[in-house]
Amino acid sequence: MEASTTVSTIELIAPLTGVMVPIEIIPDPVFAKKMVGEGFSIDPLSNVLVAPIAGEVADLQPSHHAITIRSADGIEVLLHIGLDTVRMEGEGFSPKVKEGDHVEVGDPLIEFDLDLVASKAKSLLTQVVIANSERIESLTPVTGVVTAGQDVAATAELAAPVEEGAVATGRTVTSDALLIPNPTGLHARPTATLVNLAKSFGSDIRLRKGEESANAKSMVGIMGLAVARGDKVTVSATGPDAQEAIAQITEAIQTGLGEDCPAVGTADTEAVPAVEEVVVEEESTGPRSGDPNLLLGVSASPGLGVGTVLQLRHDDIQVEEFGEDHHKERRKLNAAIDRSILDLSALQQRLEKEDDAEKAGIFGAHAELLSDPDLLDLAVSAIDKGKSAAYAWRGAFNNYADRLAGLKNEVLAGRANDVRDVGQRVLEELTGQRSEKPELAEGTILIAEDLTPSDTAQLDRSKVVGFATTNGGASSHVAIIARSMDIPAVAGIEGRALDIPDGSRVVLDGSKGSLQTNLSDYEIQGIVERQQRIAARKAAEDERKDEPAVTTDGHRVAVVANIGGVEDAQEAMTKGAEGVGLLRSEFVFLGRTKAPTEEEQAEVYADCSRALQPGQPLVIRTLDVGGDKPLPYLPIPAEENPFLGIRGVRVGIERPEVLRAQCRAIMKAADAGAELNVMFPMIATIEDWRAAKKIWDVEADRLGLTTKVPVGIMMEVPSVAVMARQFAAEEGCDFFSVGTNDLTSYTLAMDRGHPKLAAQVDPCNPAILALIGGACDALHERGKWLGICGGVASDPQAVPILVGLGVDELSCSIPAIPSIKAQVRAYSLEQCKELAAQAVLCSTPAEVRALVPMDEA
Ligand code: PEP
Ligand code: MG
């Protein structure tokens, strides 16, 4: 008998009113490649999902964004509202049925908030998929607009039931316990990947969670287990290929089943037992010294600190897992949050009075975080499941912070740390257990796994002479803060630094990225003398900070500042900046939950402009956000590969209304004093540039802009460097500014914040220097200029080489300005050119750096 003779058809009635869309073209490969099954998609115009067939509710996902109906014939129809909606964790979805209910065609299943899903999810496109597609011969969707509960949306030809094959026999192989790393557990997409993999094996395969288990080849079965992040599962296979199946499935689960997953922490919403079972000791590839008294890391902020160690640790607070009735627990949480908000605003006011607006701002932002609905929902839903307020809150803020940290962005990593800070504050309120704030002695060198923004904001600069963290790299959050505070710092230091006892005398060399212990008095004396020489050199550089940077043979290089807002602009002026080469406009509005109005933006840009001397350049970079650094008020769906996704100018092109408003705001500030320039981040193609420039031109016409505002390209993607001649030839392209942080990362294919790769992400790599040199030539041929605004512009060792390559402007971190100017003055242009010519022929960054020996004072 043939295994699949067509026996009948079924009709799927439209579950939503909307436009039919072929599933093959939806922007989600798991659905588009039919890994979940045959189906179609609807672009909805209605907001109540209704049953497309009669049957039983076989599965309703805990986050209520997806539901499966099983017909009497055993056909399982999965309905998945929107894309990436699992991350909304139920917000905006109201189920009208529960698992086990029987439904008729057209019965309401889930009502959802169309606007909310549209603004928070990747897409509203709703998928209707036969989850057990082996049960159908074919599926034929209609096209055009369909009406919910009335029109036929697709017809499926059923296949005859396949004869039950012999029960698989053979050895049963069971995996080790596996922790689910997926941020939102096994929802439809990772489940589809797992089911497809399982189906490629002949063995019977089951996934077990606790007492329950499901056939690993069944979407509905696995989704019915409601496997959450951090849940422990095992997989067993029985059959001829059991061994291979378990090996492959284990690896697939551990690596996230196609999703980008941060490591599973111990403090997720649900407790995660036995983390040790699967956490593999990672072999570090960062710099390591064989000398027990010398610990190596990466230079995060230059300078030498001599002092005594203080290990900065956050105490663990003990909490009970289960609470009283949930009303009481909710009240406890609310009261603790209210008390924390009061404390924070008192602290904020005090700091404002002390004229410390920067620190005040951090605590203001913390208070705002405490009304974040996502964070509160996470806590409340755990309380409603019987958890104590403290337990639920701790899980919620750690989970929320992990999600942010998992976005791999230094700015957002800082935000994650903010969440942990403020979360800890509320936890202390809830439990009455306060973690001791250590007294800082003069000459303290802090050592920590990581420092939060408020750790650093609370650092008393007069007491702390350096810090080292085991996390982070040269362009990490800690490094940026350390440089802006002018404190020597080492990131990614060897883990044994955490074992150095408090009070030990150490020397931290921020320039070399090292920490030395067990020094003799004689050695300390030598180092202190060296420090004095460095201080004397700094003083001499400061003396001449307001003079231009001119080489010994008369070639002038502009030295300007990188800033994140008005205060930085003011500070830059005190350090000798000749203008601003990069205003990171996304930093200006980072702490906000609502988009700034056009007028608010214009006001900030005008304030920055007024802070400079009239006529000095102020280069404003349009918003540089994206999958890796979203702004709270500009939701961008999570992406598997955010550094290669909708980032930088691509966001502006996708959401032109945002870029248009920012362009108009910049134009409105054009006459405030400084010479305004604008540039677009992450340009990769000529089309990117033309699209962004067109938006600029259209708005300039509309506003009747008469002031000349030069427009430039940030060279951060190698394609721009390789095609520099074509880009330089583009009409209206006035300059290039090289973002070497990203350019290095994209050229070497190394994440700029990766602790293990940090030492290799060196912009002095000859490949990067060659790209810069080529671009300088291309621009100069057309009488245009090139600046550098990435971190390498603040690296004195690189300066003569950059000048020799033809760089016209160096845009540095504010404290570096006097020493960068001094370094320009130490060479002739001829020497610089000779160094540059040698540098591009070197084989390694080390060889390049050896060309410019640095006086260690
Ligand atoms: C860069 O990539 O070098 C740059 C200046 O941009 P950002 O560091 O803000 O990504
Ligand atoms: Mg960049």
How would you characterize the overall build of this protein?
With 857 residues, this protein is of the alpha/beta class. The chain folds into five domains: 9-158, Distorted Sandwich (Glucose Permease (Domain IIA)), CATH 2.70.70; 172-254, Histidine-containing Protein, Chain: A (2-Layer Sandwich); 289-315 and 437-534, Phosphohistidine domain (Glucose Oxidase, domain 1), CATH 3.50.30.10; 326-431, PtsI, HPr-binding domain (Enzyme I, Chain A, domain 2); 544-850, Phosphoenolpyruvate-binding domains (TIM Barrel, Alpha-Beta Barrel), CATH 3.20.20. It is 35% helix and 20% strand. It contains 27 helices and 36 strands. The strands form six sheets. An eight-stranded antiparallel β-sheet has the order 9-5-6-7-11-3-2-13. Strands 20-27-26-22-23-24-25-21 form an eight-stranded mixed β-sheet. An eight-stranded parallel beta barrel has the order 29-30-31-32-33-34-35-36, surrounded by six helices. Helix 6 crosses helix 10, helix 7 packs across helix 10 (410-431) and helix 8 packs across helix 9 (389-405). The chain is globular. It starts with 5 loop residues before the first strand and ends in a 7-residue tail after the last helix. Mean pLDDT is 85; it is low at 1-6, 163-167 and 265-285. The structure holds phosphoenolpyruvate (PEP) and magnesium ion (MG). The site of phosphoenolpyruvate has 10 residues, from strand 30 and helix 22.
